[in-house]
Amino acid sequence: xxxxxxxxxxxxxxxxxxxxxxxxxxxxxxxxxxxxxxxxxxxxxxxxxxxxxxxxxxxxxxxxxxxxxxxxxxxxxxxxxxxxxxxxxxxxxxxxxxxxxxxxxxxxxxxxxxxxxxxxxxxxxxxxxxxxxxxxxxxxxxxxxxxxxxxxxxxxxxxxxxxxxxxxxxxxxxxxxxxxxxxxxxxxxxxxxxxxxxxxxxxxxxxxxxxxxxxxxxxxxxxxxxxxxxxxxxxxxxxx
Length: 240
What we know:
Blueprint: H1 5-11, E1 36-45, E2 48-50, E3 53-56, E4 59-69, E5 74-85, E6 92-103, E7 107-119, E8 126-136, E9 141-150, E10 155-169, E11 172-186, E12 189-204, E13 209-220, E14 229-239
Antiparallel strand pairs: 1-4, 1-14, 2-3, 4-5, 5-6, 6-7, 7-8, 8-9, 9-10, 10-11, 11-12, 12-13, 13-14
């Protein structure tokens, strides 16, 4: 089973960003993939920055996800997420997601649907509809693009990004992501939105338990009402 540790460490919570990699430690052949796998992730971050917007300061969250192999190429991800602020304010976010993707040798195409419910936030409740496409340039490099329509705000968000990952030992790997985003009538932003990057290091205690500390940044561009953000955090992952 190709686990989703890089995705969660680099893209953030609630599928958030969902925004959507492969585990450098588990690049096994498709014939080794189990028909279903379950992952539970919990973590802490100093700032919750989602699509270039700071939604709250420090946050703790938990996500549960099931990956179902419908065939050698088709996979279905379903799951849920909950996060709550640990500092001032009563921010919280709950989400449920349903993703379908097709994995070929050199590329992956996916369509994600996420329902998000916010409390004490300027982000609106609603569905997120997000097709995406990723080219697997080499074993270590991916180049991806995607666009999302947010029914809560009625705006569009798109991104173009590159990802790189490399084993650092038999039990660990380093992963990086950097990209840029663009928006159309998305929470007051229209045009080039931000530049972002994230770096994570995952250590697997065994095949089922791992930890991922990470750091990231978001630098606003001309259309963004935000300011520079630097954040860090850690995730604990358990796979079944």
